[in-house]
Amino acid sequence: MPKVNLKKFVQQYSSKKVFYDRSFQRRSVWNNKDWNSFANSLVRGWATNPIIVLNVENCREHCHKIGDVSSEEYYNDVLSNGYKYISLDGQNRSINIEKFIQNNITITGKLKNEDDEIVNVSNVFFKDCPQRLKDKFLTGTQIQVVEFSEVTKSDAGKIFKAINDGKPLNAQEKRNSYPSPISDFVRKCSNEFRPLTSKILKKEKIDRMLDDEIIAKTLMLLIREYNDPDINKFQNPKNLGLASADVDSFYNLGNDYYTMLDPSCPYIQEELVRAKGIIKYVSHILLQQEEFANQVPLRDYWGVVLLAEHLYDEGYEVHKPVDFMKSFIELERELTVDSESAYSAARQEKMENNEDPNSVSKEIYYFRLATLPHQSFARNTRKEMLLKAFKQFSKKSFGIRKKLFQQDLVFNQAA
After folding, report:
1. What's the pLDDT band for 408 if we cut at 50, 70, 90?
2. Number of C-beta neighbours around residue 351 at 10 A
3. Among 238, 254, 250, 312, CA closest to 279
4. What residues have CB less than 8 Å from 345, skipping those under 6 apart?
5. Which of 16, 40, 113, 328 lies at 20 to 30 Å from 124 by C-alpha?
């Protein structure tokens, strides 16, 4: 396992040469404390975990030899963008080492210099460090680098998961590495709709890719049809749950297809265009509403998605999102209060008849259904109740108007 000093490491494995494919990465979430702790371990020789990369040219040649066309195309794309390596493990370490050596971040701590003396520094750039501490970083500190040379695109995802088997990756961080074109589509939607997901999720959840997960779940509910009759039987959104295993299945549908443009790929482009259009519709509402100054509750997010799908397909546009959300919250409040009253009345009737009030199930009442978006029965029943109540409100109060709706979203793999 070769070791290189940091001077050579920054030259050979700089961010201009290493591609950080989001398929094989967690999000870069290190803070100053993380970096300072790692730097201290680095100069003391305690940072023993290797940086792991793929050698792109060697992997491309390997895929050419074995006839893996989609993997060869993937590596060709990476090479055409000027990269020599793909990172599989060590993103935070690599990026922060480079930033420090290039004077883009500072360091704080009691660090060992090239003479084995302890030097106390506080918020200091590399250029301002004592010379012998600079020497320690540049030539007196080594880091291990492992290069893989015979790896397909699919194998790269498996290696990433194997590397992280002992680490607390969550379900979505694992899905991110799936060799499925939906992984890339979800990531791109997540980037585009980051203002929306930031309105419904806290930063620490976004750092762990739960924004990707909520985009994936929303797509699952909005995609009506797939390019395979057998898939349509179990992926029908009316019968679909949104448990972790269900999301895994959604990703696995496209395993080993390199692109959405593959004629046998199960995901239909027009369905993805429609789903993305509805998410854009929801984003327009939630980013301009004034009912919630900070975060929009997930219950209301899913309610807006259910209503927005109906309005989008019926050709309505929301020209007054503030009015829309105000009326939506009023509608939700009425449905919730009425259902709570009905539930209480049903329990009271049981007691008056000397029957067990606990035999009255909450599961058929709106106030309970609205909290269970991951269950198909609850979600479908809520949608029916929501739409029925919506029709009693004036379109004007919701700030919507009929329009010859043009799908202005063009499906583009690069978008």
Report:
1. very low
2. 10
3. 312
4. none
5. 16
Please choose, from the candidates 254, 252, 72, the residue with its C-alpha nearest in 3D space to the C-alpha of residue 181.
254
Pairing, β 142-148 against β 3-5 = antiparallel
What is the residue type of 44? R
Which helix (H) or strand (E) element contains residue 271? helix 269-286
Q: By three-state DSSP, how is residue 4 classified? A: strand
pLDDT at 301 over 90: yes
Task: Name the residue among 315, 301, 331 with its Cα closest to residue 406.
Answer: 315
- Which residues, 6+ apart, have CB-to-CB distance to 16 below 8 Å? 82
Return the percentage of the chain with pLDDT > 90, whole number. Answer: 76
| CA–CA distances in Å: residue 357 to residues 319, 348, 349, 361, 366 | 46, 7, 8, 9, 18
- Residue 77, token pair as written in the block: 């794309």
Q: Which residues of 170-193 are buried (b: 16+ CB within 10 A; e: fewer)?
A: eebbbbbbbbbbbbbbbbbbbeeb
d(CA 297, CA 200): 6
Amino acid (one-letter) located at 170: N
**255-257-258 Cα angle (round to 5):** 125
Of 86, 77, 89, give the one whose Cα is nearest residue 151.
Answer: 86
pLDDT of residue 28: 64
CA 89 – CA 20 distance, rounded (Å):
10
Helix (H) or strand (E) holding 20: none
Count the alpha carbons within 13 Å of 50 in the hemisphere toward its beta carbon.
Answer: 14
Using only the alpha carbons of the chain, give its radius of gyration: 27
Q: What is the pLDDT of residues 199-212, one digit of tens each?
A: 999 998 998 899 99
CA distance 207 to 200: 14
Q: CA 357 to CA 353: how far, in whole Å?
A: 10
Which residue in this structure is represented by tokens 């050709």? 315
CB 293 within 8 A of CB 287: no
The residues with which 317 forms a beta bridge, in sequence order, are: 401
Alpha-carbon separation of residue 390 from 84, 324, 332, 335, 382 (angstroms): 56, 11, 10, 10, 12
